């Protein structure tokens, strides 16, 4: 959703929801949020790479039976709170709803998602509007002036100077040329308050919210459909694995009985000197060591000696089979345990970089260069064993959206927590476990607590001239004060 269109859609939204109470919060699919105000009024907000937005809907999308933990967390804090004020930070495509309790703000950010803030800065701001000449020559102007978006530059470049000045002045004064849903030459549908050049189709609307709904509803329906399909696939895989596990249990009983056949073979062997080993019979009764008697059923087509040999062969085969199914059972149980983590990460369709990162998973098995761990929530964590491995960890194995950890203010190992893509939310427990692994391989390893940096890999740069393994961090996500627990390392380590 382009920034200027976002501005007008927010301006229409605020009067409709100001003073209302948030009655329910849902997440029908990852990145999709539903805020219900009761009756036929629901705010649907979604954030995906380069395609987020929001719209009002009379209907709520279908929701999973069990909401994610972070939805429950947010629901407890904002349910039944009234929206008493609304603040728009439209150049950054962000809006804030001031809530009636504790002066908290519910932040909806198309790039970052949904979160709570104790306050917001810059309630009143007036963005700077550069001149047309500066806009036309500076292709990176959106970095300094985020409201001068690439679509706006494209639209201005396709107009004569008089019309371009008029469009720029209208937007500066808060006037829209109209509200549209258009399709560009690459087949992408977008909402807009002006029309850039090169469009192949357009549809006009009377309001920004109508255009926002026409744009957002199909996207949200697809996100929910993809998620539901992925969940069904996971449920089907879980059912298949558990069925195979049940088959293994039946095979185990059969193989245990085969192993017990060695007892029959041993009993025949102990009496073989008193028997006619070449005789054929249906069964044989022999004295046991405990003073009792035991009747053994035989294959009448074979001699007593041949039956004894068959018992021993079956027992050997049974022991080999038990060794195999023990390994197979462990594999199936591991796959079943990993299914919830797969649902957390893989239901979101990664971009091209994410797919390439998945193909590089083979690198992660290099145990001599990196320790290989799995967090309690199923996330893969890598820890470099030396400086060279730390360099390779950042250069080859890590994707830009992965998370990086390193102990503060001293030497230590680089640690990477793998994510499928940018929108994967990592639970606090997994963040603390990754931080703990970083602290355990640092100069603070013998302390009770340590502060650990956390940043996105794309904000961690290797600078020419620095020693191998040394980096510069452009932007930190947070600093984690972790209680160092040496036992966590063995608990999280992946072996085999």
What does this structure look like?
With 496 residues, this protein is α+β, with helices and mostly antiparallel strands. The chain folds into four domains: 3-117, ibrinogen binding protein from staphylococcus aureus fold (Roll), CATH 2.30.310.10; 132-206, no CATH class; 235-346, Helix Hairpins (Orthogonal Bundle); 352-492, no CATH class. The chain is built from twelve helices and 21 strands. Strands 14-15-17-16-18-21 form a six-stranded antiparallel β-sheet. The chain has a four-stranded antiparallel β-sheet with strand order 1-2-3-4, with helices on both faces. α7 runs antiparallel to α8 (304-346). The longest helix has 64 residues, at 208-271. The protein is elongated and about 115 Å long. It starts with a helix and ends with a helix. Mean pLDDT is 84; it is low at 340-366.
- Judging from the principal axes of the Cα atoms, what is the shape? elongated
Main sheet: strands, sense, barrel: 6 strands, antiparallel
User: How confident is the prediction overall: mean pLDDT?
Assistant: 84
Q: Tell me the β content.
A: 15-25%
Overall number of domains? 4
Radius of gyration (Å): 33 Å
Continuous helix count: 12
Report the uncertain regions.
340-366
Q: How many E strands?
A: 21
Terminal Cα separation, in Å? 47 Å
What class do helices, strands and sheet pairing give?
alpha+beta
Strand order of the largest sheet: 14-15-17-16-18-21
**Helicity level:** 40-55%
Concise structural overview:
40% of the residues lie in helices and 21% in strands.
Secondary-structure blueprint:
Layout: H1 3-17, E1 24-29, E2 32-36, E3 42-46, E4 53-57, H2 69-78, E5 83-89, E6 94-99, E7 105-109, E8 113-117, H3 132-137, H4 141-144, H5 150-157, H6 161-172, E9 179-183, E10 189-192, E11 201-205, H7 208-271, E12 283-287, E13 293-297, H8 304-346, H9 352-359, E14 370-374, E15 380-384, H10 387-397, E16 403-407, E17 415-417, H11 428-440, E18 449-456, E19 460-461, E20 472-473, E21 478-483, H12 487-492
Antiparallel strand pairs: 1-2, 2-3, 3-4, 5-6, 6-7, 7-8, 9-10, 9-11, 12-13, 14-15, 15-17, 16-17, 16-18, 18-21, 19-20
Helix pairs in contact: 7-8
């Amino acid at each position: 959703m382009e920034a200027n269109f976002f501005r007008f859609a927010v301006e229409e939204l605020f009067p409709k929801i100001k003073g209302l109470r948030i009655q329910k919060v849902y997440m029908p699919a990852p990145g999709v949020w539903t805020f219900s105000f009761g009756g036929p009024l629901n705010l649907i907000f979604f954030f995906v790479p380069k395609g987020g937005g929001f719209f009002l809907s009379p209907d709520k999308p279908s929701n999973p039976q069990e909401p994610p933990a972070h939805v429950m967390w947010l629901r407890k804090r904002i349910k039944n709170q009234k929206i008493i004020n609304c603040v728009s930070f439209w150049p950054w495509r962000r809006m804030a709803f001031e809530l009636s309790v504790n002066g908290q703000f519910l932040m909806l950010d198309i790039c970052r998602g949904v979160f709570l803030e104790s306050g917001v800065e810059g309630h009143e701001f007036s963005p700077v509007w550069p001149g047309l000449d500066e806009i036309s020559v500076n292709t990176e102007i959106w970095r300094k002036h985020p409201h001068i978006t690439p679509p706006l530059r494209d639209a201005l470049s396709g107009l004569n100077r008089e019309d371009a000045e008029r469009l720029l002045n209208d937007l500066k004064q808060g006037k829209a040329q109209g509200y549209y849903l258009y399709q560009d030459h690459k087949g992408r549908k977008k909402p807009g308050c002006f029309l850039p050049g090169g469009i192949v189709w357009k549809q006009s609307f009377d309001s920004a919210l109508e255009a926002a709904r026409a744009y957002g509803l199909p996207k949200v329906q697809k996100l929910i459909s993809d998620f539901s399909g992925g969940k069904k696939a996971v449920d089907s895989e879980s059912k298949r694995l558990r069925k195979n596990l049940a088959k293994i249990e039946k095979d185990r009983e059969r193989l245990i009985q085969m192993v017990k056949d060695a007892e029959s073979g041993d009993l025949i062997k102990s009496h073989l000197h008193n028997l006619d080993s070449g005789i054929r019979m249906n069964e044989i009764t022999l004295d046991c060591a405990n003073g009792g008697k035991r009747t053994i059923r035989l294959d009448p087509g074979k001699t007593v000696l041949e039956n004894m040999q068959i018992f021993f062969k079956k027992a050997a085969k049974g022991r080999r089979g038990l060794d195999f199914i023990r390994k197979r059972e462990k594999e199936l149980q591991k796959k079943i345990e990993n299914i919830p983590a797969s649902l957390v990460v893989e239901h979101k369709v990664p971009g091209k970089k994410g797919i390439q990162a998945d193909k590089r998973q083979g690198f992660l098995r290099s145990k001599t260069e990196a320790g290989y761990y799995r967090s309690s929530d199923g996330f893969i964590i890598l820890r470099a064993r030396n400086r060279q491995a730390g360099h390779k960890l950042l250069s080859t194995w890590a994707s830009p959206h992965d998370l990086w950890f390193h102990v503060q203010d001293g030497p230590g190992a680089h640690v990477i927590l793998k994510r499928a893509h940018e929108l994967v939310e990592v639970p606090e427990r997994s963040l603390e476990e990754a931080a703990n692994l970083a602290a355990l391989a640092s100069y603070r390893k013998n302390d009770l607590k340590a502060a650990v940096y956390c940043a996105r890999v794309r904000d961690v740069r290797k600078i020419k001239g620095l020693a191998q393994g040394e980096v510069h961090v452009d932007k930190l996500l947070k600093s984690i004060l972790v209680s160092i627990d040496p036992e966590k390392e063995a608990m999280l380590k992946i072996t085999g």
